[in-house]
């Protein structure tokens, strides 16, 4: 299953706001961080704001912040809010009657169960689960992503163990 860019931007916006809870951020801040168009992001922010997931404060010192605690923002709910349909095959659209197998096809049932399983997994995840405080993502000089994991030692110091993603 593939999510739309719109949903991707919605999830990125929520993650950005969750990681920057100590300050108000602007749509431009989010757009710059993710290298995405501000105009497209404005539509996403409007929908998230209308749903109460984020708060938009107007004025000179305004900006955006989460409207709920990260633990109260369910990823499955966000995906359902931002995806216009879950037609993973043309036979899911009741207005499309072009499939010659539709009267006896078992594929639709299998794909329907797969979609349900996909959403069930997302229903078990909150925004808070994306906010692991012990992981820092960065890029190496060669541009490949590097993940730094911090682990607590018995001396309560943080040691960095670097793992490279290929």
From TrEMBL:
Pfam family, one: Rrf2
Keyword DNA-binding: yes
Keywords: DNA-binding
Listed name of the protein: Rrf2 family transcriptional regulator
InterPro entries: Tscrpt_reg_Rrf2, WH-like_DNA-bd_sf, WH_DNA-bd_sf
Stored PANTHER family: HTH-TYPE TRANSCRIPTIONAL REPRESSOR NSRR (PTHR33221:SF4), WINGED HELIX-TURN-HELIX TRANSCRIPTIONAL REGULATOR, RRF2 FAMILY (PTHR33221)
Species annotation: Keguizhuia sedimenti
Keyword Membrane in annotation: no
Gene3D superfamilies: Winged helix-like DNA-binding domain superfamily/Winged helix DNA-binding domain
